[in-house]
Amino acid sequence: MAERRMFSKSIIDSDLFLDMPSSTQNLYFHLAMRGDDDGFVNSPQKIMRMVSCSKNDMDMLVFKNFIIPFDTGICVIKHWRIHNYIRNDRYTPTIYTEEKTQLMFDDSKSYTFGTTLGIPDDIPLVDVGKVSIGKDSIGEISIDKSTTEIGQPSGNPKQSKFVHPKLEEVKAYCEERTNGVDAEKWFDHYTSNGWKVGKNQMKDWKAAVRTWERNYSSSGSSEVGKTGMAAYRNGGNHHEVDGRGNKNPNAGIDFGF
What we know:
mainly alpha, 11 helices, about 10% strand
């Protein structure tokens, strides 16, 4: 197993991460340092006690979507593949295969639960290109910038996958609308949470920018990042609160999904 662990600045320099208490940040670093080569940690409670952190710190990491817990007591670092790249000759697969099969990677290479569970290592993926479906198929099917999962029913077309924008695209869109939204803060925020709005995968990033734009117009630029972060977790629930106990001011807003 590799001994070195790295951290991506796109995650740990985001407002979503830095807004957490220092004790919560410290717990995250210690958990990530002790993850196996797939990011699984088998003793989060022991580590929590060892670094004198409270259960509130652990709950905050779960609430902010930085770690994913399992009923077995094991947890996984959500952004593990963003933080770490391990060479094949040093990589040791996790022994927690049951938990791993419950996960899949989203477009940003973050772990997430999905309706389609993890893909076993021995099932190949079809590369980008053209695929002929059976001898009775007519013509060729073009596969759009993604791999095709083996065994997906041909009668149930796969929905187009969300492709997150580049920072330059976000900046250009904000400049076009002259909306005053901090494009880098917006980009870092959604990169750190796996491009999700609430519990759903983002489908329209421009709609999410326009939501921040409305917040900017009503509250001022200093509040855009904070209100956007609270809203993405609450997902439209009028009674949910953020990690500091504040009520969600953006309940019911269209966030682009």
